[in-house]
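Collaborator request log, item 7. Partner lab (contact: R.S.) asked for a structural prediction of IS66 family insertion sequence element accessory protein TnpB to inform their binding assays.
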Amino acid sequence: MSSDERKQLWQQRIESYRSSEESSVKAWCKQNQVGHQSMYKWMKRLELETTETSRTSPQWLTVEVSHPLDEKNSPLIVNIGEFSIEVKEGFNPLLFNEVVQVLKTHVK
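Returned to partner:
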């Protein structure tokens, strides 16, 4: 079995567990003849992979303009949840990106 096939098998097993009504990983594994330690290992591995992928993949946000800007140097106001960020000309794009990522992670 190739590593991609093994990964797909474990993704299917994890999906099956999560969609089941069984709340205990150990009990699900026992019922499905799957080693619970392997299940935990693969759950962690795939979760880390997903987290790393989402950190490196660009994600776009929807921008809604509530009213057109008349002034040439008006700041851009970005709302994320209950927070607002005012972006002025000459802003630090790396800092802005970090702040947006933190807010996206912690604001529901």
